Amino acid sequence: MQIKPILSALRKHRLSTILIALEIALACAVLCNACFMISQRVSATHIDSGVDETSLATVQLTGYDSTQAPDVDARALAALRAVPGVQSVSLLNSIPFGSRRGTAGITTDAAGEHFGGVIEFYVGGPGSLQTLGAKLIAGRAPQMDDFHAFTGFMPDEGSVQITQALAEHLWPGADSLGKEFWVLKSHYRVVGVLKSLVRPDPTGWTPEQRQWSVFLPAQPGPYLTGSYLLRASPGDLPRVLRDALAALAKAVPEVVIDRENSHTLGELRHDVFKNDRAMAGMLVGVIAALLLVTSLGIVGLASFWVQQRRRQIGIRRAIGATRSDILHYFQTENFLIVTGGIVLGMVLAFAINLLLMQRYELPRLPLYYLPIGALVLWALGQLAVLGPALRAAAVPPVVATRSV
Amino acid sequence: MFGYYLDLALRSLKRSPGLTALMMLAIGFGVAASMTTWSVFRGVSGDPIPWKSAQLFVPQIDSWGPSQKSGAGLHEPPNALAYADAMALMHDRRAALQSAIYAVAPTVLPAGEGRSPIPVFGFGVYGEFFPMLDVPFQYGSGWQAGDDSDGAPVVVISDALNRQAFGGGNSVGRNIDLDGRDYRVTGVMKPWNPQPMFFDVVDTGGFGGNGPDVFVPLQRAIASGMENAGAVNCPKGVQPGAGYAGLQKSNCVWLAYMVELDDESAVQNYRQYLDNYASVQQKLGRFDWPPNNRLRDMRAFLDHEHVVPDDTRVSLLVALGLLLVCLVNTAGLMLAKFLRRSGEIGVRRALGASRRAIHAQFLTEAAVIGVGGSALGLLLTAIGVFAVNRMLPPRLAELARIEPALLLLTVVVAIAASVLAGLYPTFRAARVQPAWQLKTN
User: The domain containing residue B430 runs over which residues?
Assistant: First the structure.
């Protein structure tokens, strides 16, 4: 296939060629970045929470004093345990995808010089780690004497289980069992490592930070109250939650049931990622529109050119070109233009990504998006030009002999 | 002549229906995507108090010092005030109107038997808050300055709370139970839910909720120990003592602040005052760094706090990218279409039409394509806004609405985009040489 004749023919239609190439370049830039953003969002929504979400629900009570807490908890727990289908109930201050009550910054030294990050403390009563279903991969689970009473925000000390992600971040490569970290004057020692335990608000953190959680055992009391985790079998769970809320309304009528935050963990998870799903959906719509418009544009322009060049095609056919020669000619021409557009488009895609990185703190576009984008656009271009090219191939040689 | 050009345009469009449909489709898609994301953007970046936002300012005083690195890397002062600074500013009263603000979450116990407690959300403020922000009242008004200093148990309630607790009607002068203590109602607001909640974005995140239910005097709320529902940020290494007493003594920041400054000289004076205050604190030894204050107007502060979610901005940019692609597409197709009619242009020019006439003819055609594209764009925009409403979290969704202004803007943008895309093709068409075209080929 001769490239030079194609190029010199294109030089006659410089502007249209440039316009198609520009369109492909813009499409490539928007396509690569949009696909990358979609993959970011989708991977965020698929985060591994580390707990048995399908079996868990939470009920939140509020509107009472800390002095009333032991009484309220006693009645509430009794009522909840009596609900048929409930496998276990425990107290947990923060709920994955739900209420967030234990966020604090930690340091890996007592003097407070080495900042470790802002993490989530899941302060839970006896049985809460088992209720959650979080998997332990090293060390031990909390034992009965780990659960102390405490006052204030969190216990001042304790033996904790941390997630593998957090252990890797704080002490990369080393065994984290036995290591210590501090929150101002409070001091904690690692005795177990969990496979994963997502923080209550995973959106708004980088992918590594989403798993920075710690389980801190504590005795329920005036400062660990009103936030219950229920476990039931997945089929029963919606009914169990409804019955639990009704039972609580009867057992503790003087407190407020926070119905907005009392849901199954599945529902909470769905709500947390609403924004990400919306963004991903919108981007998919934009990509679809983009590809449609680009392909239709190529079809339109290619049809126009074929019409312009009927005489030349006829002449070529008359002197011996076959149908497939004409077809290949137009396909190669399209391939060249799209290649030019893609080259420009890759540069543009990177430039746009740098801009987005700077202003909106998005991550860098991985290199493998560019060849994929290129392939998609090549395929699109070839498909789009197929129709007009076939029509060109159908031009009969006799056109060359007509003067009109 | 316009009617003639319109006629020509319609005929030409009818002659090549495929190409016409293609161009209208391209314009329609591009415009619809841009308008949908624009409506969301407009909703979340709207100004809830446009008649006054230029006169409202947020002062920031650096009470932490250069040892605290903020995320921006630049030495930005914290976005709220410490208690000592807020009280000093209120005491000096250097602005026309000012108020310290912080979020509280008391529980209301309605009168009558068997009524269950209602958790509400509100703010502790000073009396000047109400005239400063033009808070609309149904009955009564805010409280007087004397009530602030006395710590009087007064409260302003919302319309919704008025209906829930008192069944509606004028409840000024009646008592309402907040956290077990009686407060006298001095005013009932009209339904007021500014989005974003511009006077305290630090605690509220800007959006969401049904609006503040109660306003109480700030000192009274602190004295009664009303639960602080806002954010407290402490400098590294500082752990405040328990309760409000601890917060009041420390340099932890937890109070939002807003002032009204009516003209440029007032702004300059206030800026000077803030710097003087910080210098005095430096001399007294409380700060050991030079003054590092900010005084941003309300909109600049909202921008600084990233109240408009970044997602919304990125969506807008992506949609504009699509619009650009559609424009280039349409331009290419128009170029093809117009140049195909070189013969017709040659004839018109030979008969005496000026280049201007050719411009007018083809720009009219571009505008007609724009009108057709706008019809499709309107339909797609309506679908887009509807879909976005279903997909976004409710607090943002209700801000994106289909309004007449949005639809009008869609039509205008479609026609403008079409004409813009048609500019170069028109220019090329007008440059066609009549002589060349009239020769038989």
Answer: 2-47+309-438
Q: Is B429 on the interface with A (CB under 8 A)?
A: no
Hey, is A252 helix, strand or coil? coil
**Alpha-carbon torsion (A396, A398, A401, A403), positive or negative:** negative
A245 — pLDDT class (breaks 50, 70, 90): very high
More confident residue, A353 or B235: A353
DSSP state of B133: T
Rounded mean pLDDT of chain A?
88
pTM over the 0.80 mark:
no
Could you give the percent of chain A with pLDDT greater than 90? 42
In a domain, B297, yes or no: no
Gap from B343 CA to chain A (nearest CA, Å):
13
Q: What is the DSSP letter of A153?
A: S
* Residue A54 DSSP one-character state: G
For residue A213, CA distances in Å to A200, A210, A260, B78, B236 come to 9, 8, 24, 27, 21
Considering the domain architecture, whether residues B92 and B166 belong to the same structural domain is answered as yes
Q: How far is A304 from chain B (nearest CA, A)?
A: 7
Residues B257 and B178 occupy one common structural domain: yes
Task: Provide the β-strand partners of residue B182.
Answer: B177
Cα-to-chain-centroid distance, residue B283? 40
Which one, of A102, A95, A169, A176, lies nearest residue A136 by Cα? A176
- Cα angle at A377 between A326 and A281, to 5 degrees? 145
Q: Is the peptide bond before B196 cis (omega within 30 degrees of 0)?
A: yes
Contact between B316 and B37 under an 8 Å Cβ cutoff? The reply is yes
Q: Which residues of A touch B117 (CB under 8 A)?
A: 63, 254-256
Cα end-to-end distance, chain B, whole Å: 31
With a cut of 90, say whether residue A13 has pLDDT above it. Answer: no
Q: Are B102 and B228 in contact (CB under 8 A)?
A: yes
pLDDT of A41 strictly over 90: no
Ranges of residues in chain B with a pLDDT under 50 are 70-71
User: In the structure encoding, which two tokens stand for residue A137, read together?
Assistant: 């991969």
Closest approach of B390 to chain A, Cα-based (Å): 9
pLDDT, tens digit, for every residue of A87-128?
999 999 999 998 888 888 888 888 777 888 889 999 999 989
Q: Is B57 within a domain?
A: no
At residue B441, the pLDDT reads 55
Q: What span, in angstroms and rounded, lies between the C-alpha atoms of B217 and B215?
A: 7
In A306-379, beta strands by DSSP E: none
Asked if A152 lies within 8 A of B337 by C-beta distance, the reply is: no
Same domain, B426 and B333: yes
Q: Per the domain annotation, does B299 fall within a domain? A: no
- Assess if residue B212 is contained within a domain: yes
- A268: contact with B, CB 8 A cutoff: no
- Three-state secondary structure call for residue B259: strand
CA distances (Å), origin A302, targets A296, A351, A359, B109: 10, 30, 39, 74
Q: Which of A279, A281, A307 sits opposite B311 (nearest CB)?
A: A279
Residue-wise pLDDT for A119-137, tens only, equals 999 999 998 999 999 999 9
- Give buried/exposed letters for A28-67 (b at 16+ CB in 10 A, else e): bbbbbbbbbbbeebeebbebebbbebebbbbbbbbbbeee
